[in-house]
Amino acid sequence: MSALDLLDEFGFEAAALVLGPEGARAQRGDLDLPRAWRSVTKTVTGLACTIALQEGRVHLDDEAGPPGSTLRHLLTHASGCTYESPNTLQPPGQRRHYSNYGIDEASRHVERALGRDFGDWVTERVAEPLGMDHLEWGGSASVGAVGPLADLALFAAEMLRPTLLEPEWHRQMTTPQLPELVGIMPGFGKQSPNPFGLGFEVRGTKSPHWTGADNSEETFGHFGMRGCAFWVDPRADLALVVGTSHDFCDAHRRVMPLLSDAVLEEFGRR
């Protein structure tokens, strides 16, 4: 039995691809079907913003968002903004409040600094260099991307072996910013701490979690509420990309950790 046979446990259509640094190690299902990435979009936005940071077009300590907030706060769900509005629950930097609005506002800040459409920046500086030819960029930098798993796999491969970022910027993007912050992880309850990088979730010691018990604390990635997800585990030197035809539900909470551990056991560092 292969690890990817666990896709049957979802009980609905699912596909997946396992990546090592040399490329695909296993795949199953429809990798070309367009899927709504939803919050996985945040990772593409995180990379696009970090490219702007690397080039000095913006800075993490730029004032952005509510009073006292910075671009760093917006990209790491620490601005205090609510989920979908500029209303704040508390001052910036005190707690991790997951916020689509905050990520969208981060993209607007970068857009103003660039003097051009953020979606065009994503296309030119992320999608085209990586060959993500079927990525459709919607109106929201937090949840708007639609594309096949084949394109998401190209993005995951870039995260495994970066070519668009210098090592220090890749590290900043994918390791915890404001690492001590506590907060609610959507679908998985309060996490203490609840680490995030720049648009990327970082596994840390979160429990329960959608990755596996054997994933390292350095694992980073994201899941989306329409059933797409990916993680990169630097310690295992491995990535997993998953897409399903069902909104994120109890089946994902149950199967994703099992699938992740099985993938690590079968395909981990060689």
TrEMBL record:
InterPro entries tied to this protein: Beta-lactam-related (IPR001466), Beta-lactam/transpept-like (IPR012338), Diverse_Enzym_Activities (IPR050789)
Coiled coil start-end: none
Domain Beta-lactamase-related span(s) in chain numbering: 37-246
The protein, known as: Beta-lactamase
Lineage: Bacteria, Bacillati, Actinomycetota, Actinomycetes, Micrococcales
